[in-house]
Amino acid sequence: MSIISAKDVKKWYGDFQALKGVTMEVGEGEVLVICGPSGSGKSTFIRCINRLEQHQDGEIIVDGIQLSNDIKNIEAIRSEVGMVFQSFNLFPHLTVMQNITLAPIWVRKKSKSEAEAKAMELLNRVGIPEQADKFPGQLSGGQQQRVAIARALAMEPKIMLFDEPTSALDPEMIKEVLDVMKELAKSGMTMIVVTHEMGFAKEVADRVMLFDDGQLVEENTPDEFFTNPKSDRTKLFLSQIL
Amino acid sequence: MNKNKFNFAFWRDVRFLKWAFQLFVLFLVFNSLRGFFSQAVANLAATNLPFSWRFLGTTPGIQVSEGFKTYPESGLEAIQIGIANMLRITVSGIFFATIFGTIMGIARLSKNWIVEKSTTGLVEIVRNIPLLVQIFFWQAVLISFPRLEEADRGQHFIHISAKGIAFPWLDPGESSWLFGFWFILSLYFTRKVFKWRVSVLEKYGREAYPTIYSLIFLIISNILGWAGAYKLVGIFGYAASIVGNLFDVFPRIGIQVLFISVGSFYAVRYISSEVKRTRSAENRGVLTDDDIFKLVITVLLLLTLIVGMFLPLGVAISDFLLGNEAFFKSNWGLPQFFQGIQNKLDWNYSGAPFSVSYPEAIQAGSSTFTNYSQDVGKVMTVGYFATWVGVVLYTSVFISEVVRSGIMAVAKGQSEAGLSLGLKRSTLLRLIVLPQALRIMLPPMGNQYLNLAKNTSLGIAVAFPEIVSVGQTLYNQEGQTIAVFLIWMAFYSFVSLTLSSIVNFYNKKLKIVER
To answer: Do B413 and A85 touch (CB under 8 A)?
Structure first.
């Protein structure tokens, strides 16, 4: 039973073709890690899944809804799909608590007390309940990213997308974010993670994919991917980063 | 031994140098001011025109072409007319320049090619031509319309001629101030209603229709107000009359003591906050030379105030505030001020607050010329039109750039994060983008408001009688150049400081907390 299915997805930026026909499926509860060199289209692809980028050809079906230009359709999918960005993108003028409760109140029409109770629960889960009343600018990078994860989870999404969540962090802070993500993966969340953290891929991924030049080059289980890759491109990629 | 370790000449001591430099600068400033002033006073005395404020009280015998009075009875009243005219353009100018500027700024960000390019063209043209040239241009536009002829006499709805633009206007009734005050109060409470509905939405999580509720409140409260509920506002007039009557029993010494105690209060508060600050952990109770300098100046200022309140100037100010007419001939003073409020807001007033009147072209006095009637409708004169359109257009293109840069400066990731949470575009704009853009826009916006206020002085070029133009007429008449310049400086500083303190207040409110 696949929750996301993409069929021959193509995307151009002017003359440059960023996605050259990507076909893939993600099952419910599956953890998928996407890696690849920069400019390979991996970020573009996951941004197409919640329509931050618009694909020009092919089709994407998320949780039974096909992505189209219908605005209601797009908003429905976006509230089911949480996203975590490389640069956190917390709202700097709102407190941590307000950051997390904003969407549940305005999109899900929850009451403030209900949303705040849920937010406290999530802050406990990501390990920073004491920071609830601070502003994002007062937190460290790792703490900010954990707030961003809590903010996405507050919408109770069925799918979580991670766009290089640890690339902007100090080495010391990477671990605290990865720990939260591992815990999330083990709780059965459907996740697509674009990352260069191969340790994370080995430990929690159900499948690993390699993107290169806008195409899906290899799709494999983590064991096979790291020990016995099918394509030469994967071997080259692994030899450069490991 | 220990002494020798830091043995160096005192003129190499940083602390000595700092103090010496401060005193030297103070000496320079004081001396040059004294020099300028005594030179000016000597020059005036040589031309038999000693410095004096007397012209403020005497009838200047000038005619002011526009304003609440044509023949001012005193120099002060002439200045008041100029101030009123300047403020008319400034206040409405700021209002419209903000609206036009915001629209143009957003239009320049539009994805619609025609909208974007035409706005860009307009902005580039307007901001590259000197404002004075533009004001002359708008004057030329209006005076190229046909002159008012005998054939034009009679009532009109809207009429444009080389005399100006005449249009219908609301004539105030005796209750118009009451209703105006009611209207402002209703705006305040409309805001409260909006906030209350938003809090309901946040608290109980159900749709609470803040916009609809507040609009309905605004409309109903003003219908009630028009129908006569404005009489309730009369309570403020009554309160004002009580306060005004207090001054009758107030002796001069009361005002002097009041000033001195307010001054001492702020001086003591400032000193104690400074002392507390230097005692805080990071300063460890050490007063730097700058701190001592600040404290010395504060004490000196306080002493000046205490002594000054009993010198002629302080006595004059006290009498002025008491309405004793000692300073110069005037009906201005605190008692008169409160009496004025009571006169405007009397709950015995009744009738419709406003009635519509239409402009009419009539024979001007005993001459054969035709002019618009002063009593009905409203005429936007050539001077007002040229100055107003000039400064509004000129300021709006700069504001449009401020708005554009403010919105563009909000990182794209902010919108993406909002969208990825499923927020609607309108909610995203209101809760995420605008609060951050406003924070960036506010300081440069304040600069534009200040520019607009100061640029109204160009009205003198098209004979619009704002404060510079009136002041010039006055000193041509009376020869009191320095006094008029002091009034200009004081007035423009007052306006600028008021505007910038309002902007600073909001700036502080919107500030984002960083680590």
So the answer is: yes
